[in-house]
Design a protein that fits this description.
The complex is a heterodimer of chains A (404) and B (374).
Chain A lengths: L7 H18 L18 H16 L18 H13 L8 H14 L2 H13 L4 E4 L15 E5 L2 E9 L9 E7 L11 E7 L5 E7 L5 E14 L10 H12 L17 H10 L1 E2 L2 E2 L4 H24 L11 H24 L18 H14 L4 H12 L6
Helix pairs in contact in A: 1-3, 4-5, 4-6, 7-8, 7-9, 8-9, 9-10, 9-11
Chain B lengths: L13 H17 L2 H9 L6 H9 L18 H13 L6 H14 L2 H13 L3 E4 L15 E5 L2 E5 L1 E6 L6 E8 L2 E8 L6 E3 L9 E5 L4 E3 L6 H40 L1 E2 L2 E2 L4 H27 L3 H28 L2 H4 L6 H13 L4 H12 L1
Parallel strand pairs in B: 1-5, 2-5
Antiparallel strand pairs in B: 2-3, 3-9, 4-8, 5-6, 7-8, 10-11
Helix pairs in contact in B: 1-4, 4-7, 4-8, 5-6, 5-7, 7-8, 7-9, 7-11, 8-9, 9-11, 9-12
Classes of the chains: A alpha+beta (404), B alpha+beta (374).
The complex binds flavin-adenine dinucleotide (FAD).
The site of flavin-adenine dinucleotide has 22 residues of chain A, from strand 1, helix 10 and helix 11.
Chain lengths: 404, 374
């Protein structure tokens, strides 16, 4: 197939090929609970399972399909990768664990990195040999990312890192980190003192400590830096120009711009699963689905779920996005993550008194996975910029409202 | 339809794109808010010059086949004209006339279509008389009747919310006839007792028609065998166009809010910098975006059986709620000024109540949907 736009018939053929490949190659049930997103990889067995899965898909030619060939990509049209990603979601296959590399560090490096950086980092991102993590949030500065204080002090052609990053997803497994650090503590404007680095994790002075998450499992980490030395070649963008790089990264992270390698990064719940639950859950001696109030609530979720799919479709029609061009792209993360949280919460309420069971109890509905899933849904309403901060951003950038 | 794997796709034609652009510019020019307020006060129901201009643009015949003098397009194209009109709260007989034409197309006899559709395309005003004093949204629960004696039908009962009846050349009324719902043509000269209604949306000209004493020839009946399907079609067409009005209206309400939030200061800060105002305004935007996606999907799927009906009901439900929320917040976010007649927020709120009250609110359509989907 050439890089020119594939014909509808070619796309259909490809769709079939991909569906067949995944059906034949889908991994067996590992026999242990998998995490629901890249932000919750807690155990080694989870990690190795997921890494092997990504590697297999990459080796089959189904990841990074639209990235340049010279760095290990497929050099093919984006439409093909989109088909693969959709098929993964459709077949409810495990997600791509190296999401930070695939979907934000990778496109960032391809956009702004030097030739050397591209050659060094892109192939390992795709094959999952090199896992990436993200060092943005700090214990005292999360939403206020521009206030990050981790020190990167220049010493000749090196920088010395001191401080700590927190909520580092995949930190225990990562070979590299995208790091936002303060290279100049004395600027008038807090943003101007920041620089952006691509740093190795396995060096003296970096220590990663797992943090137990609300589900009781492990997932993310705190990363401590004590006189850790990195070369100045780790800089991406200019020294002091880190804020702009961080903003570009967040645009990839939130899906506000394209260029990602593809693959999904979390397992989403679907309203049809909740409808199925409403058929077995009981209210007043009858199936809950016969209760008119529950029916109305289900319909609201059905309509909302379709809104998201339709927003995706309408987002591709330029004439229907004239007045506020960025609106749909910038609101996808907020709408999707809040929907998931509320849908999971509703699934609990449907279970009546059994909503109070949790993973491990033999009477817990579907092993208590809805309870776990509700908790895990907060990963996306908090991570990547909280829903409240997303409201600020949309209000200010899309509607032009004054800053808070 | 609950299958997550079927991705619904919105199609948008070149004709839709062109019409949307033309109509957006037209409405910006012809329907500034000052003009909308003048129309509320105006004695005559309609600006004849504006109506002629709209007819001249071909908008009355968009969804009428070429053989009857129309453009042979579909309601999906009409949507692109109605949406910007909704944004500007334009009150014209465009929607009423379009729906009446749809009724003729769905159940009119050849003679009725040949007589009326070309006239409509050229600017005749037509309207539907479907509602009754009970306020029931069901289009087939009818108290009004037609009784036949010889070649004449004698009509009886009251029809409410008949848009633009005073200027209409043709009214198509629903009545119960021999125990079934029927549609009957009433010409201007046959109407004898109409009263202007006092309605919450003052941009509308709405009338109550007393049918008692009206007789029409039996040939005024639309094809009885097609009437049930025609009423279902009219209901969906009305919901689609009301959704377009409501989506446009929501955008208008959001613009009213944003303008004030960017210019009004309290405590030395623009009020738009307060998250108690900013965040709900963003929620209004998200609701509008969702409703608009449903609207254009309903336009894409219109007439496609059950899937088409599902899409229309979802559009009506989301757009009604979106306008209700945005316009309600528009009043609150203007403070004392929001309580005034002068503030445009009330115009949108009134429109919002109208849009919910006509052809079913969100809960009504969700109830219908739940029977189709669960
Ligand atoms: C599962 C998970 C994985 C994560 N992974 C990573 C990772 O890999 N790397 C990384 O760097 N970070 C990661 N994060 C961190 C995430 O980006 C931050 O938690 C987030 O940006 C919020 O920062 P905070 O935790 O300091 O909360 P705070 O900023 O302290 O927020 C506390 C509360 O105040 C609200 N708030 C704060 N500022 C405002 C404002 N201006 N307006 C209105 N409300 C406001 C917030 O919405 C929140 O409700 C992860 C988080 C989670 C939950």
């Amino acid at each position: 197939m050439s890089t020119s736009a594939p014909s509808p018939a070619e796309l259909d053929d490809f769709r079939r090929e991909v569906a067949d490949w995944f059906t034949a190659n889908k991994p067996k049930d590992p026999g242990f609970l998998l995490p629901q997103s890249f932000m919750e990889v807690g155990t080694d067995e989870q990690f190795y399972f997921l890494r092997d899965w990504q590697k297999k898909i990459y080796e089959a030619g189904y990841l990074g399909m639209a990235w340049p060939k010279e760095y290990g990509g497929g050099g093919k049209p984006q439409a093909l990768q989109d088909i693969v990603t959709r098929e993964m979601v459709k077949q409810k296959l495990p997600f791509m664990t190296n999401t930070i590399g695939l979907n934000w560090a990778g496109p960032l490096i391809l956009n702004m990195g030097t030739e050397e950086q591209k050659k060094a980092y892109i192939p390992g991102i795709l094959s999952a040999d090199d896992i990436w993590c993200q060092g943005f949030s700090e214990p005292d500065h999360g939403s206020d990312l521009g206030n990050a204080q981790l020190k990167a002090t220049r010493d000749g052609n090196e920088f010395v890192l001191n401080g700590s990053k927190i909520w580092t997803s995949l930190g225990r497994h990562a070979k590299y980190m995208i790091l936002l650090a303060r290279t100049n503590p004395n600027t008038n404007n807090k943003y101007e003192g920041l620089s952006f680095f691509l740093i190795p994790m396995q060096i003296p002075g970096i220590e990663v400590q797992p943090i137990k998450k609300l589900t009781g499992e492990y997932g993310f980490n705190q990363t401590f830096f004590t006189d850790a030395r990195i070369s100045e070649s780790c800089l991406i963008g200019k020294e002091g120009g880190g804020w702009a790089v961080a903003m570009a990264t967040l645009a990839f992270e939130r899906g506000a711009v394209g260029g990602q390698a593809g693959g999904h990064s979390m397992m989403s719940k679907h309203v049809s699963e909740v409808v199925a639950l409403a058929k077995v859950a009981r209210r007043n001696g009858k199936p809950a689905i016969e209760d008119p109030v529950i029916r109305d609530q289900l319909l609201q979720f059905i309509i909302e779920e379709r809104s998201q799919a339709l927003n995706g479709s309408r987002g591709r029609i330029k004439a229907l996005n004239q007045e506020r061009p960025g609106s749909l792209a910038m609101s996808g993360k907020l709408v999707g993550s809040e929907y998931q949280r509320r849908l999971n919460q509703f699934a609990l309420s449907l279970q009546g008194s059994n909503a109070a069971y949790y993973v491990g109890d033999p009477l817990a509905y579907e092993g208590g996975l809805w309870q776990r899933s509700y908790f895990n849904a907060f990963s996306a309403t908090i991570g990547g910029g909280t829903s409240e901060v997303q409201h600020n951003i949309i209000g200010e950038r899309v509607l032009g409202l004054p800053k808070s | 339809m609950l299958d997550s794997n079927k991705k619904p796709t919105i199609l948008f034609s070149d004709e839709q794109e062109q019409l949307l652009e033309v109509a957006t510019n037209f409405c910006r020019d012809r329907f500034p808010m000052s003009e909308t307020r003048k129309r509320i006060e105006a004695k005559e129901d309609l600006s004849k010059a504006l109506w002629d201009e709209m007819a001249g643009l071909g908008w009355l015949g968009i969804a009428v086949p070429e053989e009857f003098g129309g453009s042979g397009l579909t309601l999906a194209e009409v949507v692109t004209v109605v949406e910007p009109m909704g944004e500007h709260l334009a009150g014209t007989p465009l929607v009423a006339t379009t729906l009446a034409a749809q009724a003729l197309l769905a159940a009119g006899t050849s003679a009725q279509k040949e007589t009326w559709l070309p006239k409509i395309c050229e600017g005749a005003i037509a309207t539907l008389a479907l509602s009754e004093p009970s306020g029931d949204w069901s289009l087939t629960s009818l108290e009004a009747t037609a009784t036949k004696s010889g070649d004449t039908l004698t009509l009886k009962g009251t029809k409410t919310f008949v848009s633009d009846a005073a200027s209409a050349d043709l009214v198509i009324a629903s009545v119960s006839y021999e125990g079934k719902a029927a549609l009957v043509l009433i010409e201007k000269t046959q109407l004898n007792n109409i009263t202007r209604e006092i309605v919450i949306d003052e941009t509308r000209r709405s009338y109550r028609i007393e049918l008692d004493g009206i007789t029409v020839p039996a040939s005024a009946l639309l094809d009885i065998s097609k009437t049930e399907a025609a009423l279902a079609h009219i209901e969906q067409a009305a919901c689609l166009l009301l959704s377009a009005e409501a989506c446009g209206g929501t955008n208008g309400a959001i613009n009213v809010i944003v303008e004030y939030l960017k210019t009004r200061k309290q405590f030395e800060r623009y009020i738009g910098s307060y998250q108690a105002l900013k965040h709900p305004t963003v929620d209004a935007l998200l609701a509008m975006e969702a409703a608009r996606s449903h609207l254009y999907y309903a336009a894409t799927m219109f007439g496609e059986g059950i899937e088409g009906e599902i899409a229309v009901r979802m559009a009506k439900a989301t757009s009604s709620s979106a306008l209700a929320f945005a316009s309600d917040r528009a009043i609150q976010f203007h403070g004392g000024f929001g309580f005034t007649y002068d503030c445009d927020a009330q115009l949108y709120r009134r429109r919002g109540i109208w849009c919910e009250a006509q052809f079913g609110d969100a809960a009504h359509h969700r109830a219908k949907l739940s029977d189709m989907l669960l």
